[in-house]
Recover the amino acids of this structure.
C-alpha cells in the first residue's frame, strides 16, 4: 500500500495542499502529531488576511500573499468559513517616518496590491475614532481582511477528507528514509511508503528537511503573545490597525476578529523550544504598552483570554516552497510565517501544481469543491430557527451561554467528517467555551456531549488530546 | 406571543424568592425562566451546610435551602420553564427565549426581574501567564464536577484566590481524597468569610499565603505545576520570591462578575463598581418596571441576604404592575454617595415616598478596617454613627435608614455613607 503523497502536518498549509491534491486521483495521506487539525501555528495567530504590501518586491511571500488575498472572498464562500474584508491601516506616528510609509505604499503597489491609499490624520480619525492622537498619517489597504483561522483550516481539511484524502492523527513522524522510488516515512512502529513527501510541519519543518537534505535550513520558533478582549469591545476598532515599524520596534496590531472580539498582539520573542506556547508576564506587559501607541483607552480590563503562538521563522525570512534540490520527491513548504495564513490558498495550489506536473494524474471525477460548515442558528430567521428546533430540538438547547452555542451545533462538530474529539476541538469548531466565562459553565456539559456522541466514558474526554484529560478519577477513589 | 405580569429571569435563590413574594403581593401571572435543568441555581452544587442561618435559624445545605423555596414555588403553582435560555430582552420588556420544546418564543412582560446571578472570573481575565493545559478550573466548575457529577478533577491541587467557593473547594477536594497544597491570595487579606477560613483551611492544615499570586502555569497537556510569587503593595510579583509547586490542578476563586449581558442589551445603566445595575430603593433599574436582585445586582456572601433582597424586588415588581397607568407619583430621588472606603451602595438612591419604613442599604468596603464607624450624613447632618469592630471587603455591610428621617428633606438632598475613625 503505497501513497502518492504524504503530507506532514495538518495545519493550514498542509490542509490547503491536501484539498488541492484531492482534485486529482491521488492517494494522499496527511500525518499529524496532534489529535486534530489546526493545532500548531495555524491555531494561534492574528487571523489576518494581509493585503500584501509588507513583503519584499519579487519575493515568493509577496506573490503568494497577494494571490491568497485575492482568492479569499470566493474561497470563503465555497468552503463556508468566516471572512471579512474589513480593511487595514498602518499608522505612522512621526513626520520623520512618513518616507517609510510612502515606501510601504510603493512596495504594495509593486506587489500588485489594489486600492492602496495614504490617509492624513483627519481621514484616519474619521475611519477610526479611537486611534491615538499621535497619528500623523496612515497607509490604508481596503483589501486587507480578517478570517477565522480555525474555520479556514478545518474547512480545507474537511473538504480534502470528503474528497478522499486520508488523515492520521496522534502520529509523530520520527524518520524519513530515501528509497529507490520514493520515501519511507516512519512514525514510531508505523511506516508509510510514498512517492512524494510534503513537508508542511510548521516550526518542525527544518527537522524534516534536514533529515533528507545536505542543504540545511533553520527555523526559529518566534513566539507571539496575544490578548483577546470581550465581544462588548467589538466596535472599538473596525479596521485592522498596524503600526509602522519605527525606532520603538515593530509594534502590535489591534484588530476586530470575525466573531466580534478585539485582538491585540503579537509580541515577537525568539525562543528555542518548538513547543513553547506559554505566555509570559513580559510578553503580556509588552502588548499592553505597545497597543497604547495605536489606540486610546483600549479597555484591557476586558481581556477574556491570552495565548501564544509560534511563527515558523526561517533565517532567510522567505517561504521555502518547492522540491528539495538534493531530495527528489521531497517538497518543502517551510518558513510559513506571516503572511502564511493569507497565502495558504495560493500555497496549496503551488505545491499541488509541482506534484501534478510531474505525476500527471487523472482528475478526481467525484471532486466536490464546496463544503458546508456547522450551521450557526444565529444566521437564520426566527421562522427558520423555529422550524429547525422543531425538527432537531437540540438546536433549542443552549450549552455555551456566552457564545450562545446550542447542543445541535456541538453534536454536529463531533459527528461530522474529521469531527472534534476534545473540548478544544469543539471550541475551535463552534466557539463553545470561547466566550467571556472561558468554559466555566459549559465545559461539564460539553464533556458529556462529547462522551455520549463518541461513546467513551466521561473520564476519557480531554481538553486537547494526549494526556490532557480533564478528570483524574472519581470521588474518594484514593481514600 | 405570551403575556405575563412579571417575567423573572433566573431560577436561582434570587429568582425563586422574587417570584414567591411577587405572587404574595398580588401579581396575577408570574413566570420564572431558568437556563439549567432544575430550579435552585448554583445552590444545587453547594452541598456543604451553613445556608439559612438568618432566614430559617438552622444550618441547611445549599440544595436544602433551594428546596425550601422551589417547593413553595411549586405549591403556589408559579409557572416556570427549565432549560430555557433568555436570548434578549427589549427595552419595552419583550423577552425572547428558547428551549427544546417550544423553540424560539416571545413573552411580553409588564415587569421584569433580573436574577441571572454571576460568573467566575476566568484564568484569561486574570491574565495569568504560562501554558494553557487541562487542569485549570474555576472553583465553581470543579465544584460541579465533584458534587454533581461525582468526578475528581485533580489529585494535587493549588488554589488561587481565597473567595468563599475556593475555600469551600479546598475542604471538599481534601475530603474526596485530593491533596490541597496551598491557597494563595493576591491581596493582603482574604476575600472569603472568616468562618470559611477556619472551617475549610485551618481545620485541615491547608496553608493560606496572603499577598501571593500564580506567575506561571506549567504543563503542555495537563498541569504539572505552578509557580507562586509574593507580590508588593502594587500587587506586582517580587522577583526572587518565586516558589514552584508541583500539582495537576489549579483552581481559581478570584472573584465573581454579575452576568449583565441581557441587562446591558436592554439598556439598563450599569454601576462600574459592582458591574450590576444601578437601582433605587425599590431595586428598580434605570428602566422603569425592570428590577434586579441577587448576584446579578451585586455579589453577595450569604444567600439569606439574597433572598431578602429578592423578596423586596418581587414585591416592588408586583406593586409596579398593580399601579398600572398611574405609576408616577412623587419622583423625588435622593442620591446616596459612597465615600471614605465605602465602594458602593445598593440601592444608590432613595425616594422617601417609596422607601420602606426601615430601608436596608448594603455596601462593601475597599480595605480591612478595625474599630471604625459606619456613618450616614444627610445634607451634612450625621444621622447614623455605628461602631464596627472589623470591616473587610469579603463581608458585606449594611446600614438601616428610617423613612421618617427623610420626609421633610428638601428637593436637593445628598446622602453620604462613609467610614470614620471616630
Amino acid at each position: 500500500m503505497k501513497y502518492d503523497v504524504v503530507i506532514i502536518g495538518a495545519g493550514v498549509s498542509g490542509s490547503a495542499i491536501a484539498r488541492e491534491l484531492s482534485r486529482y486521483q491521488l492517494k494522499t495521506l496527511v500525518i499529524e502529531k496532534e489529535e486534530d487539525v489546526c493545532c500548531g501555528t495555524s491555531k494561534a495567530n492574528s487571523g489576518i488576511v494581509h493585503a500584501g504590501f509588507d513583503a519584499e518586491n519579487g519575493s515568493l511571500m509577496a506573490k503568494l500573499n497577494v494571490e491568497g488575498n485575492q482568492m479569499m472572498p470566493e474561497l470563503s464562500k465555497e468552503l463556508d468559513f468566516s471572512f471579512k474584508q474589513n480593511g487595514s491601516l498602518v499608522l505612522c506616528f512621526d513626520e520623520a517616518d512618513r518616507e517609510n510609509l510612502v515606501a510601504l505604499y510603493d512596495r504594495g503597489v509593486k506587489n500588485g496590491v489594489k486600492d492602496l491609499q495614504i490617509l492624513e490624520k483627519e481621514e484616519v480619525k474619521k475611519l477610526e475614532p479611537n486611534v491615538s492622537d499621535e497619528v500623523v498619517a496612515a497607509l490604508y489597504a481596503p483589501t486587507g481582511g480578517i478570517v477565522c483561522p480555525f474555520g479556514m483550516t478545518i474547512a480545507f481539511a474537511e473538504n480534502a477528507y470528503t474528497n478522499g484524502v486520508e488523515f492520521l492523527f496522534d502520529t509523530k513522524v520520527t524518520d524519513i528514509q530515501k528509497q529507490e522510488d520514493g520515501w519511507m516515512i516512519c512514525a514510531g512502529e508505523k511506516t508509510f511508503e510514498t512517492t512524494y513527501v510534503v513537508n508542511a510541519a510548521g516550526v518542525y519543518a527544518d527537522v524534516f528537511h534536514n533529515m533528507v537534505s545536505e542543504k540545511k535550513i533553520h527555523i526559529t520558533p518566534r513566539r507571539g503573545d496575544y490578548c483577546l478582549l470581550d465581544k462588548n469591545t467589538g466596535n472599538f476598532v473596525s479596521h485592522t490597525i498596524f503600526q509602522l515599524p519605527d525606532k520603538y520596534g515593530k509594534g502590535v496590531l489591534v484588530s476586530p476578529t470575525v466573531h466580534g472580539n478585539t485582538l491585540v498582539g503579537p509580541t515577537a520573542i525568539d525562543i528555542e523550544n518548538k513547543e513553547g506556547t506559554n505566555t509570559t508576564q513580559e510578553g503580556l506587559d509588552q502588548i499592553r504598552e505597545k497597543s497604547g501607541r495605536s489606540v486610546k483607552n483600549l479597555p484591557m480590563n476586558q481581556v477574556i483570554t491570552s495565548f501564544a503562538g509560534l511563527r515558523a521563522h526561517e533565517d532567510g525570512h522567505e517561504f521555502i516552497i518547492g522540491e528539495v534540490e538534493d531530495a527528489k520527491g521531497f517538497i518543502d513548504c517551510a518558513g510559513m510565517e506571516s503572511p502564511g495564513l493569507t497565502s495558504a490558498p495560493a500555497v496549496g495550489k503551488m505545491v499541488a501544481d509541482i506534484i501534478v506536473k510531474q505525476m500527471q494524474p487523472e482528475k478526481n471525477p467525484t471532486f466536490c469543491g464546496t463544503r458546508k460548515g456547522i450551521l450557526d442558528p444565529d444566521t437564520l430567521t426566527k421562522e427558520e430557527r423555529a422550524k429547525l428546533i422543531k425538527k432537531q430540538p437540540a438546536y433549542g438547547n443552549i450549552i455555551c451561554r456566552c457564545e450562545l452555542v446550542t447542543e445541535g451545533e456541538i453534536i454536529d462538530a463531533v459527528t461530522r467528517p474529521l469531527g472534534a474529539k476534545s473540548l478544544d476541538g469543539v471550541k475551535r469548531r463552534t466557539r463553545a467555551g470561547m466566550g467571556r466565562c472561558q468554559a466555566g459553565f459549559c465545559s461539564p456539559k460539553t464533556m458529556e456531549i462529547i462522551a455520549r456522541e463518541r461513546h467513551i466514558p466521561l473520564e476519557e474526554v480531554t481538553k486537547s488530546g494526549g494526556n490532557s484529560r480533564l478528570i483524574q478519577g472519581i470521588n474518594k477513589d484514593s481514600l | 406571543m405570551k403575556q405575563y405580569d412579571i417575567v423573572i429571569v433566573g431560577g436561582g435563590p434570587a429568582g425563586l424568592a422574587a417570584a414567591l413574594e411577587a405572587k404574595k403581593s398580588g401579581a396575577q401571572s408570574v413566570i420564572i425562566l431558568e437556563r439549567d435543568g432544575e430550579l435552585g441555581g448554583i445552590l444545587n452544587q453547594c452541598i456543604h451546610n451553613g445556608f439559612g442561618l438568618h432566614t430559617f435559624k438552622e444550618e441547611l445545605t445549599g440544595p436544602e435551602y433551594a428546596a425550601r423555596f422551589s417547593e413553595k414555588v411549586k405549591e403556589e403553582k408559579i409557572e416556570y420553564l427549565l432549560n430555557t435560555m433568555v436570548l434578549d430582552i427589549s427595552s419595552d420588556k419583550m423577552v425572547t427565549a428558547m428551549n427544546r420544546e417550544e423553540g424560539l418564543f416571545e413573552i411580553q412582560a409588564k415587569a421584569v426581574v433580573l436574577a441571572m446571578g454571576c460568573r467566575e472570573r476566568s484564568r484569561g481575565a486574570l491574565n495569568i501567564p504560562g501554558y494553557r493545559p487541562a487542569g485549570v478550573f474555576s472553583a465553581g466548575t470543579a465544584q460541579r464536577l465533584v458534587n454533581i457529577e461525582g468526578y475528581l478533577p485533580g489529585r494535587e491541587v493549588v488554589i488561587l484566590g481565597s473567595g468563599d467557593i475556593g475555600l469551600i473547594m479546598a475542604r471538599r477536594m481534601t475530603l474526596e481524597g485530593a491533596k490541597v497544597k496551598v491557597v494563595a491570595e493576591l491581596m493582603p487579606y482574604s476575600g472569603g468569610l472568616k468562618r470559611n477560613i477556619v472551617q475549610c483551611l485551618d481545620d485541615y492544615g491547608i496553608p493560606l499565603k496572603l499577598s501571593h499570586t500564580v506567575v506561571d502555569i506549567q504543563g503542555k497537556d495537563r498541569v504539572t505545576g505552578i509557580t507562586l510569587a509574593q507580590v508588593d503593595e502594587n500587587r506586582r510579583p517580587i522577583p526572587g520570591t518565586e516558589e514552584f509547586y508541583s500539582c495537576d490542578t489549579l483552581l481559581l476563586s478570584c472573584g465573581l462578575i454579575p452576568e449583565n449581558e441581557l441587562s446591558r442589551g436592554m439598556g439598563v445603566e450599569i454601576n462600574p463598581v459592582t458591574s450590576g445595575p444601578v437601582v433605587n430603593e425599590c431595586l428598580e433599574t434605570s428602566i422603569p418596571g425592570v428590577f434586579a436582585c441577587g448576584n446579578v445586582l451585586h455579589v453577595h456572601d450569604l444567600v439569606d441576604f439574597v433572598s431578602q433582597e429578592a423578596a423586596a424586588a418581587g414585591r416592588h415588581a408586583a406593586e409596579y404592575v398593580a399601579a398600572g397607568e398611574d405609576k408616577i407619583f412623587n419622583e423625588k430621588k435622593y442620591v446616596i454617595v459612597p465615600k471614605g472606603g465605602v465602594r458602593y451602595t445598593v440601592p444608590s438612591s432613595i425616594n422617601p415616598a417609596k422607601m420602606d419604613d426601615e430601608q436596608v442599604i448594603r455596601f462593601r468596603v475597599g480595605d480591612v478596617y478595625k474599630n471604625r464607624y459606619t456613618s450616614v450624613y444627610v445634607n451634612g447632618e450625621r444621622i447614623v454613627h455605628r461602631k464596627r469592630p472589623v470591616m473587610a471587603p469579603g463581608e458585606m455591610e449594611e446600614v438601616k435608614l428610617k423613612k421618617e428621617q427623610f420626609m421633610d428633606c428638601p428637593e436637593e438632598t445628598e446622602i453620604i455613607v462613609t467610614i470614620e475613625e471616630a
Notes: Chain A has a mean pLDDT of 97. Residues 1-82+146-218+315-373 of chain A form a domain with the FAD/NAD(P)-binding domain fold (CATH 3.50.50.60). The CA atoms of residues 82 and 148 of chain A lie 6 Å apart.
